[in-house]
Amino acid sequence: MAAENGKIDPMHQFEVQKIFDGFNLGGQEIAFTNSAAWMLVTLAALWLFMLGGMKRQLVPGRWQMAVEGFTGFIESMLLTNIGPAGRKYLPYVFSLFMFILFANLIGMMPLGIVGLHPFTVTSHLTITGVLAVMSFSIVLIVGFAKHGFHFFSLFIPHGTPKLMIPLIFVIELASFLVRPFSLGLRLFVAMTAGHILLKVLGGFVINGTNAGAGYALLVGVPSFILMVGISVLELLVAAIQAYVFALLTSLYLNDAENLH
After folding, report:
1. How does pLDDT run across 205-252, given as a tens digit for each residue?
2. How far apart are CA 92 and CA 250, in angstroms?
3. Which residues, other chains included, contact 123 with Cβ-Cβ below 8 Å and sequence gap of 6+?
4. What values do phi and psi take at 45, rounded to 5?
5. Is the distance from CB of 1 to CB of 112 less than 8 angstroms?
6. Do 63 and 52 contact (CB within 8 A), yes or no?
7. Residue range 64-118, pLDDT digits in tens
8. DSSP string for 110-136
9. Please, are residues 245 and 191 in contact by the beta-carbon 8 Å criterion?
């Protein structure tokens, strides 16, 4: 949280900062940033979580049960939305869900208390946009590979009057093409808005405390209580957004598989 002359900048937390120089690629500098660093932290945490839960014990411990629980949860979602063919997408959708979940939760950790400020990578549209484009690309590849040009029938609902086909086709196609934008924007907006609100409340707590005991009681304490409540809500939002991203991906894959 950047502070200057008593002013708190809630947008400073989203600034991508260079940690050390990287290399040049086509005249463009590719540097190692705080965003890249926290993506590596997310991947490392996810790897450790999976490693500790894949012991294959006859009597599974809590860690193994947690990993198996997440896997079974995503598998059940895919089977419900796609059918038996959904099992082949389990590795991708599970990885997508777990990466977003861990990135969201790590960005919420109060590491700033010890001077280490976490960076929420899912609060950047470039990250959520890439994840959305990856999912959308898989949908297109599966759709055309399995159905060929018959995939375009997805944009003409069954029973559409012939005179309405051109208009309905354009509307359905536009709705289909908007999917990656809405998928990436939904996660980006949810995480960004929550973090901004928390930083604003944090500013009220700091400035209220610095202004004296009266302001601390009138402004600082209520802001802190509200901040704690919103933090709990943000933890719930972090999990819900990961689920929504995985759910919508499975629904889009269902369209590609079954042309519903």
Report:
1. 888 877 777 877 887 888 889 988 998 999 999 999 999 999 999 999
2. 10
3. 14, 107, 188, 191, 192, 195
4. -65, -40
5. yes
6. yes
7. 888 889 999 999 999 999 999 999 999 999 999 999 999 999 988 877 666 677 8
8. -GGGGT-----GGGSHHHHHHHHHHHH
9. no
Distance (Å) of CA 86 to CA 93, 108, 207: 10, 32, 52
Residues 167 and 193: beta-carbon distance below 8 Å: no
Give me the helices (H) in the chain, please: 34-52, 62-81, 90-107, 125-147, 165-210, 213-215, 221-258
Please report, in angstroms and rounded to a whole number, the separation of the first and last CA atoms in the chain: 47
pLDDT at residue 58, rounded to an integer? 66
DSSP code, position 218? I
Total number of domains in the chain: 1
The pTM for the full model equals 0.88
CA–CA dist 211, 206 (Å, integer): 9
pLDDT at 207: 81
* CB atoms closer than 10 angstroms to residue 192: 19
Beta carbons within 8 Å of 253's beta carbon, 6+ residues apart: 78, 81, 82, 86, 89, 93, 138, 139, 142
CA distance 134 to 96: 10
CA distance 227 to 10: 14
Domain, as residue range, for 74? 2-258
In the chain, the amino acid numbered 3 is A
Our measurement of the distance from residue 233's CA atom to the centroid of its chain's CA atoms, rounded to an integer in Å, reads 16
